[in-house]
Amino acid sequence: MSDLLFGIDVGGSGIKGAIVDASIGNLSSDRYRIKTPQPATPEAVADTISKIVKHFEWEGPIGAALPGVVRRGIVSTAANIDKGWIGTDADHLLEEATGSPVRVLNDADAAGIAEMIYGAGAGAEGVVILLTFGTGIGSAMFHDGILIPNSELGHLEFKGMVAEHFAAARLVEREDMELEPWAIRVGEYLHHLERILTPDLFIFGGGISKRYDDFSHHFELRTPVRVAQLRNNAGIVGAALASRGITPAERSIDEERS
Ligand code: BGC
Predict the structure, then answer these.
(1) Does this model's pTM top 0.85?
(2) What is the pLDDT along the chain (258 residues), one digit of tens a residue?
(3) Cα–Cα 20 to 30 A to 145, which of 108, 124, 130, 158?
(4) Best residue among 71, 81, 107 to mutate for probing ligand 1, ranked by most atoms within 8 Å of CB
(5) CATH fit for domain 124-228, picks 3.40.50.720, 3.20.20.80, 3.30.420.40, 3.30.1330.10
(6) Closest alpha carbon to 54 in 102, 4, 100, 91
(7) Is residue 58 helix, strand or coil?
(8) Pocket test for ligand 1, best of 164, 170, 236 (most atoms within 8 A of CB)
(9) In angstroms, rounded to a whole number, what is the distance separating the alpha carbons of residues 113 and 122?
(10) Fold annotation for 4-109+233-257
């Protein structure tokens, strides 16, 4: 089987796609990005995705990461995307639009799969929680490499608020909050997560993780934290791996065998 896969990451401002080389866990082409259509209805996004697929002349399975709960292809929440996605059979819609088999999954779950196989979580056992701090807070939770999908820890109620309203990076990136008070909030949120879930490892992701060393001294945690490594590409890589059903747990069994 070829090591070349195809992944798409649907974000609030851009929809990005690339060919992924599964043997290295990274992109084997440039990323091609088209602005997310507004409103980002399922039909408009499907149309954009088909343009990206055509750009690469890609034929074969496609993985697509979407910012919402996705169960067996059906989207059931849409906190930061068009509400028209709720109830949509996204696998089917995108298969019709592209003519290829498509597997849609939550964007943070996709990023988590990539980080667990090729990035900060490689080889990590026990309970690992990856969080992506951006417009919202995405989460991916693993036990011994097995994904517990759609964990949505950004939607826990915390301090009387939806946690992502309390601590998403958007507060700093777009709403003028200073880094320090934001970091204190994030530290409190992470501490809450460690009290209720007892993780063995946190993986800290999202664009703001570039500045991790500027704010991590505000955290008081007993859980080790690693910064995500695949950065902007994690969603694309993880979606591509998911299109072939490649999971961290299976990857480590394969490695033990070889
Ligand atoms: C959504 C999640 C998504 C996260 C990051 C949240 O608002 O509910 O599904 O993973 O944003 O995009």
Answers:
(1) yes
(2) 579 999 999 999 999 999 999 999 999 999 999 999 999 999 999 999 999 999 999 999 999 999 999 999 999 999 888 999 999 999 999 999 999 999 999 999 999 999 999 999 999 999 999 999 999 999 999 999 999 999 999 999 999 999 999 999 999 999 999 999 999 999 999 999 999 999 999 999 999 999 999 999 999 999 999 999 998 999 999 999 999 998 887 665 566 655
(3) 158
(4) 107
(5) 3.30.420.40
(6) 100
(7) coil
(8) 164
(9) 10
(10) Nucleotidyltransferase; domain 5 (3.30.420)
